[in-house]
Amino acid sequence: MSTTAYDPTTRRVPPLGGFNLTLLRIELLRMLRNRRTVMFTLVLPAALALSFGNQKGADQTIGSGNLAAYLLVSMALYGAALTAAATGSMVAMERALGWSRQLRLTPLHPIAYILTKALVALSMGALAIASVNVVGLLMGKASMPAHIWVASALLALVCTMTFAALGVFVGYIVPGENAMQILGPGLALLSFLGGLFVPLSQFADVVRHIAWWTPMYGVAEIVRAPLTHELPWYAVVNAIAWLALFVAGAAWRMSKDTARV
């Protein structure tokens, strides 16, 4: 009786590289079962919206709304970006625990794995955006038309992809729990330079020129465009360029990581 040696190159590749709704559901439920993650996603952005929404002069007119609406949109973006980046950076913990190595022994394609992580990050970012907007509605200080409210929230969700990619990128280059120790302060600094906490018009010219090159500037201008009716062309270029850079960085590090098995 003869035996045939197993050839791993003949292993059947599943449809879509292994991406499926079951895998997405499992990953999402795993995040939602983490109480600390849920608190971080829902409570922190809402608390920021409360603190910034009570600023003096919140009824000052800006575009089609007021300053409170301007800050609400900004805090929704910040909360979603922070949450999505934190979710994406979970790959660092999975690599440290050996889970990523186990997945590399399965037919799951790396692109399907990253796509799943991105969709989970977007889902968590959507929860952060929703919590900020609910707080804004309850406070009653933010004033803007309903269609602008919805448009800004949807744009914030789309722009969250940039920071989900950033989180995955950092998760592949930084070991373990150190990823969020870098992303947390880093995103706070980028948000400050991007004009989320303080309008860029109040900065000195030198700081303003630096801000134009930061990852948060372009997405912030896009998200606030329905409210302010202003969107410089270079802000769109900024947003697209940083998204492409972070996606390329995440794909590069992922390919280096998967090449080890």
UniProtKB/TrEMBL annotation:
Locations listed in the record: Membrane
InterPro entries: ABC2_TM (IPR013525), ABC_2_transport (IPR000412), Nod_factor_ABC_transporter (IPR051784)
UniProtKB keywords: Antibiotic resistance, Membrane, Transmembrane, Transmembrane helix
Membrane topology value: Multi-pass membrane protein
Database matches in Pfam families: ABC2_membrane (PF01061)
Membrane-spanning ranges: 37-55, 67-93, 114-140, 146-174, 186-211, 231-252
Name of the protein in question: ABC transporter
Source organism per UniProt: Nocardioides phosphati
Lineage: Bacteria, Bacillati, Actinomycetota, Actinomycetes, Propionibacteriales
